Amino acid sequence: MNPESKKLLIITYYWPPAGGPGVQRWLKFVKYLPDCGVQPIVYIPENPTYPIVDENLIKEVSDKAIILKHKIFEPYQLASFLSKNKTKKISSGIIPNQKKQSFLDKVFLWIRGNLFIPDARVFWVKPSVLFLEKYILEHNIDTIVTSGPPHSLHLIGLELKQKLNVKWFADFRDPWTTIGYHKSLRLSNYAAKKHKDLEYKMLNSADTIIVTSNTTKTEFQAITTKPIAVITNGYDTENVVKEPLDTKFSLAHIGSFLSERNPKVLWETLVDLINETPDFKSHLEIKLIGAVSQEVLETIAQFNLNPYLNNLGYVSHSEAIAHQRKSQVLLLIEINSEDTKSIIPGKLFEYMVSGRPIIAIGPNGSDFAEIITNTNTGVFFDYSEKMKLKSVLLVYYNQFLEGKLQSNGVGLQQYSRKSLTEKLAKLLNNYE
């Protein structure tokens, strides 16, 4: 690394061997930052409680990155003695439907939302500030980035900003108080106000806010006048062995399938096609890859779709990429809520370069609908468009029978991880 390279301290919780989408954003930024004249110094917990582990990601960590570790205490480590499964699901964002929550579910959610504000990693803040304050001074670092959620990490950025007057970029991979699961945390009035107050303080203390969608930018602009930059997630070049396409008409959902994402309009449409279209049922495969909520599985059973279900569970990132490229159609489902319009799932960008068409279902006006339409990588539907969904699925099915089903994306290069890192580096250098 060039000794004149700009030093950037990146404070993040999710890092290999953590699996899931939360780790990908900064893992890939760190991969390409050295090529942009930036020395990445990554600060992570030494003993984290990750809900998903993917050991294969360790080999993707740049050998040019400096990795700092410090111990963390997490209440999930204690709560797991009561119910390891429930704490693992809650920590990964899988929250049971309110009507089906057990007493223990309600207790865990109340504790999570009211006792640990902004989240259960809040105990890492003070020891991290003490550790990093010394490191920053010793190594002459003037710029830091905090990535949340968990939003506790922004508290670390705030304190370092106040103590050392470093330049602080607060990266919000997801919104804070408007994210879908926030309302499920059984917050008291005090806790809800505390979250809002902290959100306001973070947004008005950082030098620059980084967000992943235009809707989140608009939401935050109502709270702060600080500069806000949109840098989406993206796709990277992947060394995956090319496999033949599935012989079935496979509809693959990759990633966490939350209870609130349960797309009954899709299940109803598939039942209609089974009943109305000759041989459709002999070709259909519903392929679920990742953590799936019990409610989703129960609904699939209620629609008598179990004979077509292939529930593969969690697989490594490289396996997930392979499934994206060999499945016939890729499913992207978002919660039908105003609060989720700003969510652009990280897997969207990997989907877009897979060559497979996307069926996306979400709230009308979703940010990801515009991306899919502009790149010609699939079709977006809101939850009321059953007839349109049936029509498109039938077109895709007939193209599958003819061996002609594929997508032809346009303008995808802007979403490459390398291009996005160059955009980030330019943002950082504007503060030189």
Structural summary, described in words:
- The chain is of the alpha/beta class and 432 residues long.
- It is built from 15 helices and 13 strands.
- It has helices at residues 24-32, 75-91, 103-114, 125-139, 152-164, 189-203, 214-221, 264-276, 280-283, 294-302, 317-326, 347-352, 367-375, 386-401, 417-429, and strands at residues 6-11, 38-45, 66-70, 143-148, 167-172, 208-211, 228-230, 249-254, 284-289, 309-313, 329-333, 358-361, 378-381.
- The strands form two sheets. Strands 3-2-1-4-5-6-7 form a seven-stranded parallel sheet. A six-stranded parallel sheet has the order 10-9-8-11-12-13, with helices on both faces.
- Strand 1 (6-11), helix 1 (24-32) and strand 2 (38-45) form a beta-alpha-beta unit.
- Helix 1 crosses helix 15.
- The longest helix is centred in the N-terminal third of the chain and has 17 residues, at 75-91.
- Residues 78-84 and 86-94 have low confidence and may be disordered.
Describe the secondary-structure layout.
Layout: E1 6-11, H1 24-32, E2 38-45, E3 66-70, H2 75-91, H3 103-114, H4 125-139, E4 143-148, H5 152-164, E5 167-172, H6 189-203, E6 208-211, H7 214-221, E7 228-230, E8 249-254, H8 264-276, H9 280-283, E9 284-289, H10 294-302, E10 309-313, H11 317-326, E11 329-333, H12 347-352, E12 358-361, H13 367-375, E13 378-381, H14 386-401, H15 417-429
Parallel strand pairs: 1-2, 1-4, 2-3, 4-5, 5-6, 6-7, 8-9, 8-11, 9-10, 11-12, 12-13
